[in-house]
Amino acid sequence: MFFIPGPVIALLTFPGIIIHETAHLYFCKLFKLQVYDVCFIRFGNPAGYVLHEKTENFTTSFFVSLGPFFGNSLLCVVFCTAAFLPVWELKVADPLAYFFYWLGLSIGMHAFPSTGDLSNLWELAPEKAKAGNILAILSFPLIGLLYILNFARMFWADLGYGIAIGILGPIALFRALAWA
Amino acid sequence: MRQATCCECGLTTTVRSFYRMNGKTYCEPCVWKASREAKAAGQPAEYVALQDNSVCGRCGAYSGDSSDHPIVGKIPLCSTCAPQVSNWPYPGWLKISLAVLLLLLVVALLHGRRYFHAGRTMYVGERLVEKHEYESAIPYLQETLRIAPESDKAALLTAKAALSIGDINTADKAIQGHNKGHFEDADNPEFAQVKAMWNRAETAYTKAEEAAKLEQQDGRAAEAARMMHEAASLYPEARGLAEAAETADEGAAFEAKDYDQFLAIAQKMWQQYPGSGTAAAVASAFACKYAVTGDAKYKQQSEEMLETSRQKVDPDPEQQKWFQEYAERIRHRLDTRQIITKTEYDRKFRGGQGKGE
Questions:
Q1: For the whole model, what pTM was predicted?
Q2: Which of A33, A41, B73, B234 could form a disulfide with B204 if both were Cys (CB 3.0 to 4.6 A apart)?
Q3: Do B58 and A37 touch (CB under 8 A)?
């Protein structure tokens, strides 16, 4: 397993970090949570953050914590879809397509929520699930999986996730279109 | 900033350095000790940090001894920080960046439009190949290759589809059009499959060419027919080879002077592939029957089929020339009731060489 310093990764994939933090901020504003500080990107650890008010509302916490996961994943699939065919299937040497692939993968690579984001949800989920909150019940497996994947970051699970959705997403999409 | 005093050690300093437990104020070392003792005595041991409402929880601005900052949520905030915390603004550069991202998204989708088209036709073609609908698949895959001739997948699928219906020319174009026949991954199963099909087709056509050369030689029609059948069975996907094998059977029957068999094959071919060539072959077979039996009905049938062949012949000069040559020999057979090979005919009347019935 090879090691690349965090600031280098941040530099190479900065669009994903900015979009991740923007998604956090967006959902904080959407659910009217107070935001105490925001850093969209920096060469440190973490590479970006949004400090916001804690909430006991599971839905709010779910979207604030996992909003970047869904947002980054979606944008990754969209940009990679635009680039997938020329790069992987059609073998067209199109620089713009490679640019979109880099952009898509950069965004997808930063889809994972941080352990801090997940711990908020993890604390709330059992109590809310017991109280019959459907979202809390349904999100248990996802939170668990994301926890594991988050720890697997040291094995490049985040890059693996970006590549997986950047390739498998478009394949599934185009195959569905071909069968339609 | 406001100050407080520890109830245990008497330390006096800023409020934010103190904690409250069970209604008393402690400094940090004393609250740890008091909490341990309370826990041991079975009393409540939780403590909380004291909040100085005169200090902004975000920027640390002091409101003065006489007034507190308003509490927003659970934190005292100054008049500058309070509106920002409640409605954190998106920075200008971020708005511009997001607008650029949106623009890039539109560009990506517009730019990728022709690739989406090529990709879709490829996937449709692939699906048709999987369903063994090779003939329908080829136009889709050719459309993909028009946009992306370097696509290994599209080239191999096109070649596979074409070879599966015996269309060796389309397969050749697809393979040669792809980096002059060079493929990145020789271990790719698709590549191996197409290569095996291509080699089989190539061997079959080489054999067919040899058979065609033999057909031109007197006395070797049976051998030519056997070879042509071998070629056809080696590559059954090529309908043309099966036709050529049946045509070779005609030649073998003619050479063996089995004119009934010659006529039967010629008539079968005419029914299967009604064209000028097959009509001319039937005319030739009837002419042979007339030559050996003298029955006028065969002569009439031969002339009728020769006329049919003339009507169906292509206006192409080469085809016209072929018809004239063939018709001349059949008329000679009908006029003289002599059955001679093309070689003999050429030698007698044209001073040249050749073979054929």
A1: 0.66
A2: B234
A3: yes
